[in-house]
Amino acid sequence: MSAPKVSILTHDIAGGTFTNLCTDLVRGFLELGVESHLVILYASDAELARYPEIPIVPLKVKRTAFSLPATVGYLRQYQPDVLLPMPWYFNVVAVLARSLSGVKTTVVLGEHNIISLEAGIEHRDKPHLRFLPVLMRYTYPYGDGLVGVSKDTIADLVENLKIPADIPMQVILNPIDVDRVQHRSQEAIEHPWFQNRDIPVIVTAARLAKQKQLDGLLRAFAQVVKLMPARLLILGEGPLRGELESLSQELGVADSVWMPGYDPNPYRYMAAGDAFVLASAWEGCPVALQEAMACGAAVVVTDAPGGMKDIIEYGKSGVLVRAGDPEALATGILQILTQPELKQHYRERAMERSRDFHYLRASKQYLDFCQSVLASSSKNQEVQ
Hints:
By secondary structure, this protein is of the alpha/beta class. The chain folds into two domains: 6-175 and 358-383, Rossmann fold (3-Layer(aba) Sandwich), CATH 3.40.50.2000; 183-357, Glycogen Phosphorylase B (Rossmann fold), CATH 3.40.50. It has helices at residues 17-31, 45-49, 68-78, 88-101, 115-122, 127-130, 132-139, 151-159, 178-184, 214-227, 241-250, 267-272, 287-294, 308-311, 326-338, 340-354, 359-383; strands spanning 6-9, 36-40, 56-58, 82-85, 106-111, 145-148, 169-171, 201-205, 231-235, 257-261, 275-278, 299-302, 319-321. The strands form two sheets. A seven-stranded parallel β-sheet has the order 3-2-1-4-5-6-7, with helices on both faces. It has a six-stranded parallel β-sheet with strand order 10-9-8-11-12-13, with helices on both faces. The chain is globular. The chain starts with 5 loop residues before the first strand and ends with a helix.
């Protein structure tokens, strides 16, 4: 079978997880000789200039809610063999647009989170997002295939959202540009915590939101500093900043916690820290964890629903502790901070495991899956 034309549909290229994910996938497709577009809602000239090597097609609309007519127009004009929408709301748009356009494009849905938890907990106070499982339940069955970024992501769709299990499904971990991450991790750090290495630094990178359970990490950190000096760097921004700052004061650890917000180069801190920790209540496939491992960080994560377990191979490439248990998290962190040989072991395992996240490998997995879905669809049409 000749290589299909593959287009990715997403929000923008302003930065963040999906910008990196989608540009890396398209870059991989192009290196594999696949004709590919990155279709987005809108981009400024400056944003487009950052990716001169990637064919980007702006739909010239500002909001997803208004993107359906423009997506229909794109499908009719370019007629890609496969459309890969991401995240979930673009899955809904893609299914509707394919139906309205009348083209034969194959839609391979992409799911990147534990949607039942995302809707029921993180978005419980947002009525327009609380009902997203209903939209998914009535549109996902019309997709031709589905890629989930972890085993739990797919299991959640089948068990809790009742998505038919007969749709072709495959787990593919998120891609990262390992070489770029490792190169940027070498940039200098001026902060004094990283000049005097007598006191270890624990690093995390996460949105300051319920899902990330940073309150649990602060409580675990408070237990750690009762036993040894340590510092905690929290990279990221979000709605819970005030609550987390108050909690650090309440726990008496505010002087040892630094929350600088978003940093365009978190990799230098991941590489220089003594441990990288994710205490999340659930995850899809956290890119920050994959990037930290590419930087050679010794990682500690929870066994929460989602892809963290998959990424560290259930403890082979990082420390795995019980979710929602600050004492267990503190114990895992102390293992890394107090056992140099163990820390070095997990650093080496993390670097080795990170090769599996290379964007070219992921793009090949996506391409192989898309071709299998196309082949299956062709056989079904012949039978009919």
